[in-house]
Amino acid sequence: MSDTTAGAVDRRRVTIAQVAKRAGVSTSAVSHVFNGRPNVSAATAARIRKAADDLNWRPNLASRKLSGSAGRSLGLVLARSRDTFQRDPFTMRLIAGLTEPLAAIGWSLSMTLVRAEDEAEVYRQWWTEQRVDGFLLVDVRTDDPRTSLLQHLSAPAVMLGAPVPGSTIPAVTVGDADATEALLDHLGALGHRRIARVGDGPTLAHTSARDARFTAAANRRGVDALVLDWRAHSEDPVADLLGRLDGATAIVLDGEAIAAEVIAHAPELGVRVPEDLSVVAWEDSWVSSIVRPTLTALDAPVEESARTAVALVERLVRGEDVADAEVSGRALHVRGSTGPAPADATPTEGDR
User: Which of 14, 64, 65, 290 is 20 to 30 A distant from 186 in Cα terms?
Assistant: First the structure.
């Protein structure tokens, strides 16, 4: 029986022999073309390059076949701005969380920041040139072109976050149902009856999943739920958000950096935290402890997610079948940014 079951993706790399066979030439001819040697005709060279493109093959720039002992590498391609590491503590925590499990299996981390328009080419280049053995996808979008690209390349990959419908790439998700319930119970006990959830990216797969879970849990409690987006490119994003709260007395923001920005700037706009508005972050980090008031936040199991993702990628590279995995849920840390709802808060229909 074949090692690859019917319908499964064959994740073995394309070889130089397969390229040579497709082009109808010897392997040495393929080698000569990609090493820039002039002893192959232009027509034959063009045919070889087309065969290589058709098979998504490139020579191994790391010379693994020559050394016979090169370690494996996990690819992490971030379509982010250069200030990512200054503004996003989650990314730094994720990278730190990847280092230990990768070191334990003798792998390295290959990471780069790219412009969004260059993202697909980096994935293709890294895979066809055998720079990495698999990929970890973050910031997964609801209609993410990377999933179909990596499936086309037969490249092992795992995504962090909500699964994408129609994709065969396994996902590592956080069990957030209990965290959502705990958060709403906390705010409900403080008397909040109109609560806004503020997403950091309407196209991200996890945003719609969180929106749906939050709205359903709020409805079960008779709480009015607003779903808003963070407009980072507004002249004053905090003022813009406060102007759209429509009576909400508590807000839950996807990122702690954004939540800290609200805490810092809202009083300058006449909104006190938590006296007028309670603020919660869906992520937790050192940022939560340095703002005043300190930030109530949900601590994600980033390190557990990283370990699980590394284990899944390693299994994929070994040719095993892998399913989605769920890690433990977030823990709610109550701090100074949440307090009782203002006494003059407008009641909901159910409270009247």
Answer: 290
